[in-house]
Every structure is written in C-alpha cells, then in structure tokens.
Amino acid sequence: MNAPAPAHDARALRRALGNFATGVTVVTASSPDGERAGVTANSFNSVSLDPPLVLWSLDKRSASNAVFDQAGHFVVHVLAADQIELSNRFARAAADKFAGLTPETGRGGAPLLDGCAARFHCRLHQRLDGGDHWILLGLVEAFDDGGAAPLLYHQGMYAAALPRGRPEAAEPLPGWLGDNLLYLLTQALQAYQVSYRPRQLAAGLGGGEARLLLVLEQQPGLDACALQREAALPPGELELAEAELLRKGLLTRDADGYRLSAAGREQAATLWRVAQRQQQDMQAGLDAQDLAACKRALRALIRQT
Ligand SMILES: Cc1cc2nc3c(=O)[nH]c(=O)nc-3n(C[C@H](O)[C@H](O)[C@H](O)COP(=O)(O)O)c2cc1C
After folding, report:
1. What are the φ and ψ backbone dihedral angles of 143, each rounded to 5 degrees?
2. Does residue 158's CB lie within 6 angstroms of at least one atom of ligand 1?
3. Mean pLDDT confidence for 252-270
4. Residue 219 region, left (φ>0) first, then alpha (ψ -120 to 50), else beta?
5. pLDDT tens figures, 140-155
6. Percent of residues, the chain, with pLDDT higher than 70
7. Which residue of 54, 59, 84, 155 sits with most ligand 1 atoms within 8 Å of its CB, as the best mutation to test the pocket?
C-alpha cells in the first residue's frame, strides 16, 4: 500500500470504508401519532449481550428523523439475499415508503416487514451524538431468527455471502465434501475473486464505477432508470459512481441518456483487459475440452435457477 491518505478527503474515505463488508438492514419505527418511517441502514452492529444492546446510526439530514426523534421503539430487519427491492425502496426518500405494503405492527407501532434473515425488536436505550449522524442504541426486547442467506453490501455494491471452507486454496478436500457441488463452486469462486477486485481498483476505479462503465459500454444511451436497473447499484451509490465518472470526464449525459466519452471507452477497454487477464490466469493449465465442458455445465446450472 502507498502512504496513508488524509482523512479530510471524504470521497476517498467513504470508498475505503466500503471495504468493510456489512449486512443490510431496514430499521422501522412509528411516531406516537402513527406516522411510519423506514430507513435502509448498513451501520447496524451488535454491542452487548448482557444487557442485549445493538446500535445503528441515522444521518441527521434524513427526513425520517422526524419519526425516529419521537419513537420509543424501533425494529431492525436484517435483510435476506432476495430483498434488494426492499433495500432500494427504503433507501430512497419518498412521501410513503410503505405504499403497497401491508406490514403488521410491532412494539411502539413499528411496522414489521416479512421474509427477513432476522428481526430485532428494540426499545430506544440511548441516542448519542455521532458527528453528522445520530447513534441509536437499542435494547433488544425480542427477536426473530429467520436464518435466510443475508444480503451483503461491499464497496458500494450488493453482494452475497459464500460459505468459506479452509483458508488456503490448495487441493480440494477428498471425500464427500470434495465431491459436493456447492463446496466446489464456492472454493473456485473464491480462488477467482481474491485477486480480481484489487486489479480493478488498480485501474483507478471503484467497483460501482467499473460496473457503470461496463454496462454503458455494452448499452450506450441508457437513462437513469434503466442504468439503475442494469447496473443494480443501490440508490445513492449510483449517483456517487455517476458523479465520479462525470468528474473524471469518462461519462457524458444529454437528453438521450448516458454515454461513455472516448476516455470512458478506453477505461472500459482497460477493464475488459483486466477481466480477460484474470480469466486467462485462472484458465492457465486447464485442458480446453474440460474448460468447455465446465462452462456448459455452469450454463445448464444457471438455467435451472
Ligand atoms: C446499503 C445502504 C446503506 C445505508 N446505510 C445508512 C445508514 O446506516 N444510516 C443512514 O442514515 N442512511 C443510510 N443509508 C441511506 C438511507 O437509507 C437513505 O438516506 C434514507 O432512507 C433516505 O430517506 P429519508 O430521508 O426519507 O429518511 C443507506 C443506504 C443504502 C443503500
């Protein structure tokens, strides 16, 4: 690594903090007069088992403060891997984020969302001043443990958890485990991934920016809505990645949508080369027929889902 960067560069600091992978939660509450609020938050963390305490932080600029200021309870919903839509819904400011949903009501009137990996029903324990955020400490009064595979958030993108086997990528284990498809897929994926992101970062781009460039290289002229859908970046992250690419002169925007500039196309080509190099490195030493059969089998597996 180079010399440490100064912390006053908020954009770079935010990007570096994004290396800390988290889950994604939606925290809900209700005011005494029944106004509901829900906020997507990845700042959730466990604090103490005795007493059972958790925390999360809420941006002081968030419109939801009006409700959380008055709420004596809140519910933390740990999102499952298939709840990206829910995460996006509660990450956007809207007049009624619950429109079309029919949530049950929990402690203090807090709306309860279904299908989550876990839910923590909390009484507000303490509200601390944390710079531009309020830190809300909750005393867990009850919880639901759904156990579904979680939705993760890493480098500004949604991600999925892969169960890790042995730390070193040596020979696959013998026996039933070494013959298990999930074990083989996850081990192979980890071997593939570990050096890939750093190579992308070395090309000067964060994950979200890289994804926008690659999508627009394939489909120029997308509008903001289509770009959000195709790039599958969380609200806020899309705007950040877009601003960074516009600032670097890699992207242009006009009435016909977004396009890559000449420099942007060159960057996208660099990213494809990084992807190609990664693939070549991973394929080196594999028999061409084995590889073709492996890709056929993977396509068939994907079709089954
Ligand atoms: C993955 C992800 C994590 C987020 N984490 C937080 C967080 O921890 N705290 C926060 O205040 N906002 C966080 N946000 C942004 C809020 O969800 C968003 O600003 C808020 O819902 C805006 O709505 P409001 O102004 O109506 O409250 C996050 C957004 C995303 C996509």
Report:
1. -150, 160
2. no
3. 92
4. beta
5. 999 999 999 999 999 8
6. 96
7. 59
